[in-house]
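Good day; I would like, with your permission, to put a structural problem before you. A protein sequence and the structure tokens that stand for its backbone fold form the material at issue. Thank you for your consideration; the sequence and its tokens are set out here:
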Amino acid sequence: MIQRIQSVFLLLLALAMLSVLFLPIWSKFDPASQQTVVLTATQLAFEKPAAGPPAPPVSSWPIAALAAASAAVALLEIFQFRNRFNQLKLGMVNFLLIVGTIGAGFYYSGVGEQMLNIKMPGVFQAGFYLPTLALLLNLLASRLIRRDERLVRSMDRLR
């Protein structure tokens, strides 16, 4: 059924991964040159470039693609409530997509570190921590789906 608690967890997971598309993931500010580099799900670019020709933005579309795919899989997983085995398989796929999103965020933040003063560290923003929350929600949903499957199998033994 759609009103199960794991469906709520999966809906929150989808919302968290969609939020990654709109929130900044990482930023770095250099007080000496007054420049700021910001990583979003679609690009890594200077927010406040220095005087002169600005550096071209670096496309970070893999983050957006992985986050959108994860949200879509979570929504599909909600409506597979009649087939718990499919839900568990989709949960594993979603786990890989979320880990890929986190990995892509690390990779592009490393690229951003090289764009500005290397001695100044960058700061991870809310968009970086939301996939970690989504990973936890995915784990909880999978655990509850597995528990439902065990309950149904135990009832089948009693018949």
User: Anything to note?
Assistant: The radius of gyration is 20 Å. The chain has a mean pLDDT of 89.
